[in-house]
# Entry
Amino acid sequence: MLKLIQTHMMKKRVQARAAQPKQAVKVEAADIQRKLAEYKPGAQRASFTGPKLDKKEFEGAV
# Structure
């Protein structure tokens, strides 16, 4: 019973938060340019090589 009440109260809190008016944030173009000028990419590169699938495994998944 206690769990039911806790769940109900949590749902009510989430609904109340969702009902609050959203605040729009204004971003200036100059701010974007300044941030881009400060950006320096790191030496570390993203790795997009994931686990390899052999042909038999791939065809079995389809």
In short: Residues 54 and 60 are 10 Å apart (CA to CA). The longest helix spans residues 2-19.
